[in-house]
């Protein structure tokens, strides 16, 4: 028996998502610094999604999913698993609709992110730090509460919502970008970005920034199939998720290029964003800037968009991360 066909969003779903989330999500600014251009050897436009509600682009997809629900579905609440940003985003989106939210969180998640999830009103459910444990815990919450699952990156409503960031960016830049760089983990942002980019700017080059310690997207696209036997080892906690099946299908068909980045370069870019842009972004966000700085020859003379995906930094860890750079 053939497996069921994947449900993939279309460009029209992104347009519908943009209209649906408009009353709730921020239209984030595009930042530019000439000193950063000089360092990168190209003109860089930063889409400031770290200034989005809940501190990350994740609010776009979560908000679209929550407000897509029928009233009877919404009344049962929502559930997801998340190491931080998606959980906080879904909790806040649920609060905008006045419904319950349950978030399964793995052991070892960043404490500041867990605190944010709770502050937005969600109920936390702890589990072992594996994808299998997360999914099992979500299934149990669904069974006992009837809550609707909103997967962090495979849900087509989430993918369409994440695509609105690039839709907004291209409008803000009048479509004049030669290349666009976004981080990739589970693939929600990456696949939503690819959907919009290939529709509105088919000649624009699309790059995905991935940690060297969790480079399964690079391996998957090179192999032509999902490679999932990775044990992630990276400071980019938001990019440790396993690449989703629909996300792989969308990225594989989009001609994207993956740039693998070492954690040390990501931390250096994080500090540079702080000193030059005056913006504090998390490692999972700074990796997109690091990808540009480490591949100057690829971007020389281009007009490049970089999505700064999140700013939920564990402030207690910042001094530790930056300490080696002071030597």
List keywords for this structure.
single chain; 327 residues; alpha/beta; 6-stranded mixed β-sheet; 4-stranded parallel β-sheet; 47% helix; 15% strand
Verbal overview:
With 327 residues, this protein is α/β, with parallel strands linked by helices. The chain has helices at residues 11-21, 34-40, 58-68, 71-74, 85-97, 111-119, 131-145, 156-172, 188-200, 216-223, 245-252, 263-277, 283-293, 296-299, 315-322, and strands at 30-31, 43-48, 78-81, 101-106, 123-127, 148-149, 179-183, 205-211, 257-261, 303-308. The radius of gyration is 18 Å and the shape is globular.
Helical residue percent band: 40-55%
Q: Unreliable stretches, pLDDT < 50, 5 or more residues?
A: none
Separation of termini?
60 Å
Name the average pLDDT. Answer: 93
Continuous helix count: 15
Strand content: 5-15%
Order of helices and strands: HEHEHHEHEHEHEHEHEHHEHHHEH
The major β-sheet equals:
6 strands, mixed
Q: What's the shape?
A: globular
Biggest sheet: strand arrangement:
1-2-10-7-8-9
In total, how many beta strands?
10
SS class: alpha/beta
Radius of gyration: 18 Å
């Amino acid at each position: 028996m053939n497996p069921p066909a994947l449900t993939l969003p279309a460009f029209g779903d992104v347009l519908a998502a943009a209209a649906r989330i408009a009353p709730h999500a921020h239209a984030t600014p595009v930042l530019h610094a000439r000193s950063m251009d000089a360092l990168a050897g190209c003109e860089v436009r930063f889409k400031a999604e770290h200034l989005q509600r809940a501190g990350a682009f994740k609010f776009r997809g979560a908000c679209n999913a929550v407000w897509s629900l029928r009233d009877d579905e919404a009344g049962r609440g929502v559930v997801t698993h998340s190491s931080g940003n998606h959980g906080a985003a879904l909790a806040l989106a649920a609060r905008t609709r006045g419904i319950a939210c349950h978030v399964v969180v793995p052991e070892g998640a960043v404490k500041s992110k867990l605190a944010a999830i709770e502050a937005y009103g969600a109920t936390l459910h702890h589990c072992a730090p594996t994808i299998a444990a997360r999914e099992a815990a979500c299934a149990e919450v669904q069974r006992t509460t009837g809550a609707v699952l909103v997967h962090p990156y495979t849900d087509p409503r989430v993918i369409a919502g994440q695509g609105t960031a690039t839709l907004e960016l291209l409008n803000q830049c009048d479509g004049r970008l030669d290349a666009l760089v976004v981080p990739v983990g589970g693939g929600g942002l990456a696949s939503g970005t690819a959907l919009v980019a290939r529709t509105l700017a088919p000649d624009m080059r699309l790059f995905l920034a991935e940690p060297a310690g969790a480079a399964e997207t690079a391996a998957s696209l090179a192999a032509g199939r999902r490679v999932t036997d990775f044990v992630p080892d990276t400071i980019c906690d938001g990019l440790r998720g396993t690449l989703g099946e629909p996300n792989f299908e969308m990225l594989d068909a989009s001609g994207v290029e993956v740039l693998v980045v070492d954690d040390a370069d990501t931390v250096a870019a994080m500090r540079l964003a702080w000193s030059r842009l005056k913006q504090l972004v998390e490692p999972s966000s700074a990796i997109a800037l690091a990808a540009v700085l480490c591949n100057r020859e690829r971007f020389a003379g281009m007009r490049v968009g970089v999505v700064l995906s999140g700013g939920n930094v564990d402030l207690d860890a910042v001094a530790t991360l930056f300490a080696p750079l002071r030597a």
